Amino acid sequence: LPAAEAYRAVWNRQPNTPVGRRYGALAVDAFYRAGGTHNATKGAELAEEMLDKSPPGDFAKWIGYRACYEWKRIGQYARSNVAGNKLLKKGIAADKELLWELHSMMAENHYRQKQYANAVDATRKARRLRDTNYLHRLLIERMHAAQAAPGQLEPVVAEYRGKYPTYEDRHRMQGYLALAYLRADDKPRGLALLSEVIKHDAEPVRFADTLVRESRDEAESLSAAEGALRAAIKANRRDACYLRYVLGFRLYRDAMKDDAKARAVLRELVTQSPSDTYSREAVDWLLSNPENDDQFRADVTRIIAARKENLHLPRYLNYLGDWQKKARSNAELRPR
Question: What H or E segment, with its residue span, contains residue 287?
Fold first, then answer.
């Protein structure tokens, strides 16, 4: 890194001169191009030093943002925000685009440090400058992480659904509101809302798991959860495998202790909506817990037929063979 060190030496000799600033910027770039965390740290430290010594103006804005970026790039989120606060003190309020970029970056830095309330505050500041679908969604997700109360989240979710009525993720935003109701111990509203949400968006935030878990205390609630899951399976083909997994394992087997219903649903899973994820446990459980030998053979036949119809699922194709290998080492399963 002789060039980077030589450039930095010029800055050290002539700080805050046109020549010094030019060579200092070249040094930051050279450290960046050199690669590695050690060199990136040198570049970030130099950029922040130049920010400290620079008067307000275009160069301070440029080198200050570069310091924030370089610290963030190597995962030094707290130091990135330290540089960001220094940059804010340089009087950049008139530069709305830079201010938007800075608040957006600082919000992410806070979030990565699990400083969720600060992340919400910085995201709000960015949205006031320029709103986007992405920032609006991030605000809801960060409010969820901060465990915002339903009353705080409701208007933000309603605004999102009003502004983006055709966006698929609007249902997930409503799911976060349902979770807020549950945190506030308002189960009727939370469960009712989740029952609707899973018809459109069930798997990424595992809303269906939450629905069953929060319904376990009462038989009436479990019955309602059963109806909601069955309705969601009909409406939400994309998440059908996950929904059947939750219905079969979490509700029927674990909560209701009804293995017969569990088997019926899991057979639907491995034949009608298999996947490379949830199907493994379904195959294993069906073959390891048959009612009798005839049903075992029938399940094997079903799985073989389903494999032929789902050649696009490479891992699913291996699950039957994987079970056979496991069965050979199990005294109870080996005879099958």
Answer: helix 279-288
